[in-house]
Amino acid sequence: MRRRTLLGAAAAWPLAARAQERFPSRPLRFIVPFAAGGSTDALSRLAAQMLNEKLGQPVVVENIAGAGGTIGAQKVVEAPADGYTLMGGTPGPITINPHLMARLPYDVLRDLAPVVFLGDSPGVLVVPKGSPLQDVRQVVAQAKARPMTFASAGVGSFAHLAGELFRWRAGLEMTHVPYRGTAPAVTDLLANRVDLMMENYPSVQPWIASGDLRVLAVGLGKRFSLLPQVPTMAEAGVAECEASSWFGVFARSGTPAAVIAALNQAVNDSLRTPAVTAKLTELGVEATGGTPEAFRALVEKRLAEMGQVVRAAGIQPQ
User: Which of 6, 45, 305, 306 is 20 to 30 A from 156 via CA?
Assistant: First the structure.
């Protein structure tokens, strides 16, 4: 009897292994934690297309907006840990909200599994074309000589925290001026009602292209391929000032490593194709890719750093 039981288990093992190898065997669900039409939506749909083409299964995109991306992220955490429910992750629900929300319904490092880092778009330090400030060193010198202001699209926005990071790393006293969106903030910046702004590149790209805004530095560890002539913050004299609006794919923690690897490879393979990199360039994003481990390390670094920025700015969780 025992021998037949062992033989039965041995015979079942290859069947279980083959079942795992067949991932995915049904459609996948890709959650966008923001409303349709924005940059996260566009990048999520591109990622879904990559997975569809490489894995051979439909990928259904679902927009679940609310609470700065928190509701969509929670849906991923509540889903089975099988790799069939994914999310397009950005700094908001991953590295910013944990420090701004007192009762976040998930723990980023415990509940979410980074799959692949799709691409990066830097925060750019911009001034109006008529500003006398020509580089970051002049900004630092002027901020130490007289009061200066920086604009953002609201308290807790990417531009706010990127501006606070710059102020903190440069050792400056600057006044934050929040607006109800990027457009009104840029309007006052162009009218010289505020001195500068540090916003993610796609959000201000039209004004950069028109020449109305001048970029002084990018918040990346290396130069941005779409602005190769612009120095990094470190090159401009402000160390450890990396602020970028990155995008990556997440699953629920506990998803089998083989499934994570299959998803990761599908996206990395797609990122090597000219059509995909060209589309990312149109969206103002530099293709990145890499391993799940490297992506997790980035998330851990940015999560810790954002906590330092929030505390330095005196922002209280709500």
Answer: 45
Residues 6+ apart with CB under 8 A from 68: 92, 93, 96, 97, 100, 101, 156
Asked whether the beta carbons of 172 and 195 are under 8 A apart, the reply is no
Contact yes or no for 242/35 (Cβ under 8 A): no
- Give the separation between CA 216 and CA 195, rounded to whole angstroms: 13
What are the E-state strand segments in 67-122?
A: 85-89, 112-120
Q: For the domain made up of 123-218, give the CATH fold.
A: D-Maltodextrin-Binding Protein; domain 2 (3.40.190)
pTM (two decimals): 0.87
At residue 226, the pLDDT reads 93
Length of the chain: 318
Question: Which regions of the chain carry the CATH code 3.40.190.10?
Answer: 123-218
Q: Please give the CATH number for the structural domain made up of 27-121+246-313.
A: 3.40.190.150
User: Is pLDDT of 17 > 90?
Assistant: no
Cα gap 59→32, rounded to integer Å = 12
Summarize the confidence of residues 241-267 as an average pLDDT: 96
| Residue 315: C-alpha distances to residues 18, 22, 41, 103 (Å) | 51, 48, 28, 15
